[in-house]
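Researcher: I've been going back and forth with a colleague about how proline dehydrogenase might be arranged in three dimensions. Neither of us has a model we trust, so I'd like an independent prediction. The organism is Nocardioides mangrovicus, in case that matters for your notes. Sequence below.
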Amino acid sequence: MLRQTILWMARNQRVKHLVETMPVSSGIVRRYVPGEDTQAAVVAARGLVDDGLHVTLDHLGEDTLDPEQADATVKAYLDLLEQLSAAGLARNAEVSVKLSAVGQALPEVGAKLSLENARTICRAARNVGTTVTLDMEDHTTTDQTLATLRELRKDFPETGAVLQAMLRRTEADCRALAYEGSRVRLCKGAYLEPESAAFEDGVEVDRSYVRCLKVLMAGQGYPMVATHDPRMIAIAGALATRHGRAPGSHEYQMLFGIRPEEQKRLAGQGEKVRVYVPYGQEWYGYLMRRLAERPSNLTFFARSLISK
Ligand code: FAD
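Model: Here is an independent structure prediction for proline dehydrogenase. You can compare it with whatever you and your colleague have in mind.
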């Protein structure tokens, strides 16, 4: 119930307006979002890469209905890619893009505009020697996002996809995407979804995650195991061994600020570990999804709101 309320707040414009007046340096925000501009993102990436980790950077923002805002997001990614390259980080850093941040939700033109915008970002990533992964948003966007992915992969086959184990359709999507050259990030899913589309019980979601892992690890693609869950990480490791997958033929992914010691431990064992680093001013939706996963942080969050 609490998770559902927080996820409802994540999409409520009035609550968003209130919360966004908090300075980003407030403890709870800073824990998950290292900063607001490209420079802060590059500094965070540098620190993680120096610790033996890889990164994927997300310029925060979503659900835009303004083509100029979508355009500004594209420019932010181009600037980021240029600066990552200048800092010598492009080999270890890719970018994650939400199609709704580059125009997908715009009536009528959304599919075409977001495809063209994503294509521009993919081209810039390719030019500096790195890749793009398309984040996955709520279930109403899954078909459109996978269609955009198919289009992008014609020119940029290295483009990564995200699938969410909480959706009932995902095991089938994993089968469809477990082919050679395909990069698939498997996560549990962070959105408020109806029971018709998603498993609601955590145990069911975990079972689905394991079924999807089995498909991806047995397949020909490159699985990206995105979870902080120790059981899922252990099962992924066992499946990788069972299928004779060497370290580097798959990777683990976690969010910035969550289980940093585990990130380093896995990397120390020779595993490839990538940290998802969100940055920018539009941190509200992202932060609320993190709070929904960890309601124990709510007290801390409420305190930062009151003391602003
Ligand atoms: P949970 O069920 O939340 O947690 C399981 C266990 O993990 C906990 O019991 C605990 O032991 C440990 N754990 C979890 N959080 C913490 C914490 N804060 N501190 C300490 N231990 C903790 N979702 C999408 O819908 N679309 C995306 O595109 C997307 N991209 C993602 C990219 C990456 C790299 C990652 C890691 C996640 C992404 N997510 C995305 C979010 C994801 O769907 C989950 O909401 C989120 O990862 C929490 O699920 P979990 O697998 O960590 O397990």
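Researcher: What would you highlight for our discussion?
Model: I'd start with this: Residues 232 and 238 are 10 Å apart (CA to CA). After that, consider the following. Residues 135-136, 162, 164, 185, 187-191, 226-230, 253-255, 258-259, 276, 293-294 surround flavin-adenine dinucleotide (CB under 6 Å).
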